[in-house]
């Protein structure tokens, strides 16, 4: 669907891509860290290391990089507060991924008849006139005017050609089930009130079994996404019949003004450095409560900024308006994440094997990057430090696991679908590697 008229609740578009969870054996142990087969597989598949002469050599390069990372992460035993905060955020994301897999994805059932019906839906294309406003009273007034005197609202109407994409199922089901020529509405979708009239409809392609089979893979992907959204909406309705948090609008307004002045005006560069400085400041605003949860807990401005700093949702710096809108959108996503996370923890998903190795992987990666500065970028010093650590830190490689582990390298960093801007794995540690 190629229009941008509709603003929907963002967490209903949350896409979970948690990969198959397995209890896999260890490839190696490096001091306090274990390199699981699951971690090795993902780091090898989704890290942009230079191409090697063979897969075996590539696996050895990945292994050496991971061993170096685990050793360097133990080089400086002092607490790495910021690095550990980022690692804690990645751990939270792993818990949320596990929730999606256990509570949502496990209930999705698919057969060819359902895919065939989706195939027929996607073949439909409609020419639609749309009246879209933000205010309910205005929407009712303009709808009456459209019926009684169509010319009076002609300048407010937008006309678009829509096809069933499955991206906005509630809205699209309404549009594509409406009778031809009749004005429908106003109906509320997200934050807009919409009245529409279907002018005509025509097919996109010639329906055939062969065409269906060619498109089956993409249809299955669309079907699973649709089912995830519907099941998640049902889950939210059952467990959160009312909004479980309250936003202090005045504090949020002052926080937004502060961020516009301190972040947006400075531009996109050095954002992490500036946000860290804000958290360390003694401004009175930092201690004010901006969000109150119904369980008695609360987020101060400082806590919310910490979530913004470590979260995967980027802010827009195209304009001041875009910055403010992206801030609101990001805060909503962070709140949705928090609610899902609490549900997941109540079910014990923070102890899932997938979460445990994700936690260890991100913690060692962030700590290694922090300790990397201690090596001053000097290759000789890096090599000397690694040689010294090899003598101090016990390393055991399980060649029987490594040799039989299958990988399929993409040679590139891949982003998570459900957490925009966040890569599936951290970059491999390279300083001092042979």
How many angstroms does the end-to-end distance come to?
50 Å
Q: What does the oligomeric state look like here? A: single chain
Global morphology = globular
Series of secondary-structure elements, N-terminal to C-terminal = EEHHHHEHEHEEHEHHEEHHHHEH
Instruction: Count the DSSP helices.
Output: 14
Structural class: alpha+beta
Radius of gyration (CA) equals 26 Å
Low-confidence stretches: 1-22
User: Average pLDDT value?
Assistant: 86
Taking the sheet with the most strands, its summary is: 4 strands, antiparallel
Strand content: 5-15%
Number of strands: 10
Describe this structure in words.
A hairpin with a 2-residue loop joins strand 5 and strand 6 (192-203). The radius of gyration is 26 Å and the shape is globular. Helix 3 (81-104) packs across helix 11 (320-346). It has 3 domains: 11-103 and 353-404, no CATH class; 124-204; 245-346, no CATH class. 50% of the residues lie in helices and 13% in strands. It contains 14 helices and 10 strands. With 434 residues, the chain is an alpha+beta fold. The two termini are 50 Å apart. This is Peptidyl-prolyl cis-trans isomerase.
Features:
434 residues; alpha+beta; 3 domains; 4-stranded antiparallel β-sheet; 3-stranded antiparallel β-sheet; 14 helices; 10 strands; globular; Peptidyl-prolyl cis-trans isomerase
């Amino acid at each position: 669907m190629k229009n941008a008229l509709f603003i929907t609740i963002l967490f209903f578009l949350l896409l979970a891509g948690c990969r198959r969870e397995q209890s896999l054996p260890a490839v190696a142990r490096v001091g306090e860290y274990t390199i699981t087969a699951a971690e090795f597989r993902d780091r090898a598949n989704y890290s942009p290391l230079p191409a090697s002469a063979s897969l075996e050599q590539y696996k050895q390069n990945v292994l050496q990089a991971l061993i170096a990372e685990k050793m360097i992460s133990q080089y400086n035993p002092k607490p790495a507060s910021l690095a550990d905060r980022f690692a804690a955020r990645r751990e939270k994301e792993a818990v949320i991924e596990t929730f999606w897999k256990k509570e949502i994805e496990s209930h999705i059932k698919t057969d060819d008849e359902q895919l065939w019906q989706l195939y027929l839906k996607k073949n439909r294309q409609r020419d639609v006139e749309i009246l879209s406003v933000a205010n309910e009273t205005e929407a009712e007034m303009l709808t009456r005017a459209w019926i009684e005197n169509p010319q009076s609202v002609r300048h407010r109407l937008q006309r678009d050609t829509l096809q069933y994409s499955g991206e906005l199922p509630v809205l699209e089901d309404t549009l594509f089930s409406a009778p031809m020529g009749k004005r429908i509405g106003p109906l509320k979708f997200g934050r807009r009130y919409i009245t529409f009239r279907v002018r005509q409809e025509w097919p996109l392609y010639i329906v055939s079994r062969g065409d269906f089979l060619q498109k089956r893979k993409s249809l299955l992907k669309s079907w699973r996404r649709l089912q995830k959204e519907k099941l998640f909406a049902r889950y939210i309705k059952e467990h959160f019949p009312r909004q479980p948090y309250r936003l202090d609008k005045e504090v949020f307004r002052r926080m937004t003004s502060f961020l516009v002045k301190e972040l947006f005006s400075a531009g996109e560069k050095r954002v992490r450095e500036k946000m860290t400085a804000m958290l360390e400041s003694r401004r009175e605003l930092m201690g004010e409560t901006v969000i109150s949860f119904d369980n008695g807990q609360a987020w101060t401005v400082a806590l919310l900024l910490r979530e913004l700093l470590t979260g995967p949702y980027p802010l827009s710096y195209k304009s001041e308006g875009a910055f403010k809108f992206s801030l609101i959108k990001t805060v909503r996503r962070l709140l949705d994440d928090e609610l899902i996370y609490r549900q997941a923890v109540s079910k014990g998903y923070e102890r899932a094997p997938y979460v445990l190795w994700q936690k260890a992987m991100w913690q060692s990666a962030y700590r290694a990057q922090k300790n990397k500065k201690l090596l001053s970028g000097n290759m000789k010093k890096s090599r000397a430090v690694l040689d010294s650590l090899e003598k101090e830190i016990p390393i055991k490689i399980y060649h029987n696991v490594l040799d039989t582990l299958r990988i399929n390298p993409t040679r590139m960093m891949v982003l998570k679908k459900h957490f925009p801007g966040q890569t599936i794995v951290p970059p491999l540690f390279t300083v001092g590697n042979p």
